[in-house]
Each structure stands twice: as structure tokens, then as C-alpha cells.
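Ticket 4471: requesting a sanity check on a complex prediction with 2-(butylsulfanyl)adenosine. Repro inputs:
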Amino acid sequence: MQDELERIATLRKELEDANKQYYGLDQPRITDTEYDALMRELLDLEAKHPNWVTPDSPTQRVGGEVAKEYTKVRHLEPLLSLDNAFDPSDLREFDRRVRQIAPLVDYVVELKIDGLTVALTYEDGLMVRGATRGDGVVGEDITANVRTVGSIPLRLNKAVPKFSVRGEGYMPKASFARLNQEREEEGQSTFANPRNAAAGSLRQLNSRITAERKLDYFAYQVLSAKELGLHNQTEVLTYLQKQGFVVNPEYKVFSDIEEVIIYCEAMASERHHFLYDIDGLVIKVNEFDLQQELGFTAKSPRWAISYKFPAEQVETVVEDIVIRVGRTGVLTPTAVLKAVSVAGSTVSRATLHNLDNIREKDIRIGDHVLLHKAGDVIPEVVRVLLEKRIGEEKLFEMPDLCPECGSPVSREEGEAAYRCQSIICPAQQREGIIHFVSRDAMAIDGLGPAVVQQLLDVGLINDAADLYSLTFDDLTPVERMGKKSAENLLKAIQDSKERGLAPLIFALGIRHTGEKAGKILAQTFGSMEELQEANLEDLQAIPDVGPAMAESLVQFFRLESTERFLVKLCEAGVNMTAEKSSKPQIFAGKSIVVTGSLERWERREIETLIEEYGGKAASSVSKKTAFVVAGEKAGSKLAKAQGLGVPILTEEEFEQLIKS
Ligand code: IVH
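Returned C-alpha cells:
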């Protein structure tokens, strides 16, 4: 017992350290796989000793709490907005007003992160609440979601009785690009920019989805700072860092507004080099005494202003609209543009997402359009310059046949996407192989799209399983493939055989089945064979496997082509097993409801236990509920269970079950 308690403490420390290195923009010292292994060990130990789970344990970051709606929370102090400056003269005017009251002043200039305000409350050092801005006075409680953000400390380094922090929750550009790519491949609608994606993710009712979205947080404000002995903004930023928050490192202090202006303009031209979106800078009077003297207008402080970058939009011409066929057969219309430079790079193509978007914006071939980069990354047509139309522009129509293989194309109910119906479409095969070898899948480095295309063209491979029979002599004739790269590639292919079940499931490219799903399925079934045999019911009983995923898994494993492909992989020696949950799966396929207040476990703890033992922790009672665990003061759910004749267990009885 003592050993386990110590091990838990060590694991927590290692995981939180890794977290800090990762989010503190340092070099992480452990790999994702090592992190996952430590996390699994800790989850197992905590499941064994539910009473030892603490709210600041790294396991609390994986999400899982599902809310029906958000409760409202009143902010301790209202969240104000800032006045905007759009050019140097607005900044000089701001400076003039400040100097009427404070002739000598220092300004702190911070990046204005383009995300959403998240207010955090700590009590006795522990994070107890996260809330959105709402209308500035009342926001929404998003605590469960906030917990999943790795850069938000669950416990302060040094406890203070009451502590409120404000900062910006945001989605890094890379996470945004990946999320949208996944959504496009799945035929789902895409997010317009990282801010929308971050807002959508933080307002998820299911915190596990938030956890997958890779959000981040920069802290910039502390309430009641003076009571903590802090006298100015720079001290606040240093203090926040000491307490374990991530503070944006780009802030600078100036005493002359002309220097502020030079810095703002320099940042405007560097804005695209950051890993996150910024939409301007915030200029704050540093000293709190001066801030207080300057005071507030009805809506905003007089001691701060935001300098907004002009939105970067350029004009270009849509020369053509072509179709790209993706891995899942989705046909994505893509604009071929007259090359222009926008937001730091030359752009000659822009995805038009789908036909609905083309029609909504009325984009035609030959149109002059305004182009920007959504989230600073994805080139996107903002609107058509209708005044430049000459009447020769051509309306775009979706083809009836796949441009890559000639099979019929169709659109499913409720989907924006048109899909090629063939399963042997060469474009899908190519994209499928590119996905199979990608970093989060089988991680075969050195096999880019061009090499895949060449190997397909010369018939050396037909599918991803053929990669495992490639030889050195096969590879050397490939263009731009030196001896060393061929050797490295062969080694990477060999190594990938031991990637394990989770990445392999993801690599198969099954619809609705992403990286996280791969992990969950691998953990639940332990081997490809078991997964293949699972029926719809087995799959739906797994928390986080929705009906769409369950359905597409069953369909996928029913296909003869899948069976043939898996046999080939197996014969090539690809490992198709995973370590299984160490717990007996006594609740497999069972839906269990917990109600009332419990003594032995926190609500989340018992739900984790139910999941660890293979069950699903559900929130409402129905005829399908296997049993209800009822604590003190159980209300309507207990009554409903009694009415339906669903068995009711006490906490003790539940404990007996999992111990037996
Ligand atoms: S200070 C009273 N600092 O910009 C001062 N805001 O209108 C409150 N923002 O939505 C804001 N980065 O969430 C401040 N470094 C930064 C910021 C920042 C982004 C956002 C903030 C709010 C808006 C200000």
C-alpha cells in the first residue's frame, strides 16, 4: 500500500513535470508513448484506490464528464472589453490622455491572443472553477473542460486562500489545421478560424472531446493583485509564472509611445511566425496605482487599449475549380488561384470546402475574389468582388463521376460532402496509404506523397500492406531516393510493425475513428481479432463510441477487402495486439447510472471505475440500465429506477461487485 501511494505521488509529479515542459514551451523530455504509459499506470493505481484520487491529479485532465447544459456563474468582477486603436495616431491619442493624469508612465505591451477569455478561480490553491466570459457579468461554468487544458495548473505552486486569474484560451495553429483536416475528411463542417474552434471546443458538453482538441492558455491578469503584494503588471506576469501558469513570453515594457508604435508595427509584420493566432497587441499602463487613478469608462479601462492589426486580405482570380479526392472518398472542390502573397506565403490554391460553400459565396470560375488565411494558416476565399464580374464567369458543378476513377458520386443525407462510392478508387487508395504511414498512425518516416505515388504507378504496391514486402532493390530506382534514404525507409517500415494496436486501428482510416478512438478500442478489445468480432451492441456500450462510429466499424470489418488486408498485414508480421485493461470486464456492455451523494467516491471516481471495468456510466435511467448505484438523497432517478424495476445497489454492494 505504502509503495503504491509513493508510486502514485511519483507518477503524478512526472506527468505534471512533463506537462509543464510541454506547455511551458520547453523541450519535452519524454515521448508521447512514455507519457501515455505513465498515465495508464496512474489510472490503474487510482482505479484500485479510488479514495486516493485528488482533484489535481493529472488523470483529471483526460475528460469524460458529460454535462447536459452549462450552469451560469457570476464573475467576481465584471470582464471589461478594451477600446481599439487601429493606427499610430490612435495610440498617440491614448498616450496623450494617459499623460494628462500620469506624465511619467511605463507601458507593458502584450500580444493580443485571438482566443476567448477564460476566468479561473482557485480556492486554497486548487482550481475549482473555469468560466467563459459570457456577457461580462455572468459567464458559463466550463470547469470540466478547463481541466483538460494542459497549460492550466490544477494546483498552484504556492497556495493562497482565494485566487482569480484571467487569460486567453486558444487553439494553436497546428491543432486547428489538423482538426479541420480531420473534419473535412469526415465530411463534417470545418471551423472558420482557431478562435471559433477554441470556443466550440471549450463549450463542448462532453469534456473528453475538449481533451482531444489540444487547447492552450496564456494567463495575463490576477484579481486583487495588490492584496498579494503585486504592484504592477510585470510583477503579475512573473508571479503567474511562479504559480505554474504559462505567460506569453513576448511582452515588453516601454516608456515612450513612439517605441510602443515601432514594436506594434514590428509585431504586425511578424504576426504569422507565431504558433498561435494574434489579432493585435494590448498596451497596458504598468503601475496599478496609475491604473486606479486613470479609472474606467462605462465599458473599458482608461489604462489600456488594444492595437488591432488590419485583417490581411488580398485580391486574386479564381482561374479554375478542380476536385481533390480524399482518403474517405470525399470530393473537395479546390480553387486554382492566380498566385498571390498573403499572410507570409505565396498561395495558388484554396479549398472551397464543399458545394454549399461555393453556392453561398457564389464563387464562379473567373471571379475576382478576396483571399485571406483562416486562422493564419488555411487560404480561404472571403468573398467575390461582384463589381468586377464581366459576365463570362462560369458556374461550377459537382461532377457526377469521380474524376480519379470514374465511379458514381453521391451525397448522403445531412452531409455537406459528395463522395466517390468506389472502394477501389486510386485516389482513395493513395490517400489511404499516405494516412496509414502518417506520424500518428504507423509513423513510417520518409514515405511522402510523391514516393507513394511512384510506388503505386510502377505497381510495386497496391495497398499499405504491400509496403512490408518492399526490398532495397525496389526502392533504389525511385526518384530522389538515395541509398541511405532507402535503408532508412526500410528500417522505418520494419519498426512500424511494432507500433501496436491503437495506432494500427487509426491507420486503417475507418470513418469516424480517429486517433483517440484507436486508443479506446485497443484498450477495450486488446487485439484486432476481438475488435473484428465485436457487434454493434458491444461497440455502443463503450463510452465515447457513438452510433456513427459503431456503425462504420461494423461496416468496415464486414468487408471482404478488410479481411484480406488484415490477413496480409498479419502475414507481414504486424503486431495486432495491445495490453488490455488489467481489470476484469465485468460490466462490459452494461449501462450503469450513479445518483445521489456518495460517501466512498467522488462522482467522477465511481464513473471511472465503471469504465475501467468495461461499463458505461450513463446519466439517465431507462429500461436498458443494468443497475443504479444510489447514495444519500437520491431523487427522481432512483424513483424512475424503482418504477422500471431496475436493480438498485448501495455503494457497499457496488464495491463488493468489483472486489469479487
Ligand atoms: S487584458 C481590462 N491582455 O482581448 C483588461 N486581453 O478586449 C482586459 N486578450 O477578449 C483584457 N490577449 O480576452 C488582455 N494579453 C491580453 C490579451 C487580452 C487577448 C483578449 C481578452 C478580451 C479582449 C480585450
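Notes from triage: The chain is about 35% helix and 20% strand. Leaving this open until the requester confirms.
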